[in-house]
Specification:
Layout: H1 2-23, H2 33-37, E1 41-48, E2 54-55, H3 70-84, E3 88-96, E4 99-106, E5 109-112
Antiparallel strand pairs: 1-2, 1-3, 3-4, 4-5
Length: 113
C-alpha cells in the first residue's frame, strides 16, 4: 500500500515537473515546448529580375536543406547571382519562435517588408 502511494506521488511529481519544464521555462531550453514546436524557417517566392520567371530554390540546393534563417537565404541569393548569373527578387516570411517577419528580396539584399 505504501509503495503504491509512493509510486503515485512520484508519478505526479514527474508529470508536474514535465509540465513546468514544457510550459514555464525559456523557449529553447531543455524540455521546453518551444524547443520542439517552434522551428525557424524562411519561406520565399523568388523570380528572376530579367525575365520574370519563377526561380525554384530546390534546383540549386540539396533537397534536405531548408532555409532556417535570413542568412541562409542571403547565401542562396548570392550563390544564384555569382554562380548562375541570376538576379532574383521576391517576398516571403521568416518564421521564428513566437513571431513571423515579412521579408523582401531586393537587389540581392534581404529587407523587412
Amino acid at each position: 500500500m505504501i509503495n503504491d502511494i509512493a509510486a503515485a506521488v512520484l508519478a505526479c511529481a514527474a508529470v508536474g515537473w514535465l509540465v513546468w519544464r514544457g510550459f514555464f521555462t525559456a523557449p529553447g531550453s531543455f524540455g521546453s515546448w518551444a524547443m520542439f514546436s517552434h522551428i525557424g524557417a524562411c519561406h520565399v517566392r523568388l523570380h528572376d529580375v530579367r525575365d520574370g520567371q519563377p526561380v525554384c530554390p530546390w534546383e540549386y540546393e540539396a533537397p534536405q536543406d531548408f532555409f532556417t534563417s535570413p542568412d541562409a537565404l542571403r547565401s542562396l541569393v548570392r550563390y544564384l547571382d555569382e554562380e548562375h548569373g541570376r538576379q532574383v527578387a521576391g517576398d516571403g516570411v521568416v518564421l521564428a519562435p513566437f513571431t513571423r517577419i515579412r521579408i523582401r528580396v531586393v537587389n540581392g539584399r534581404i529587407v523587412r517588408a
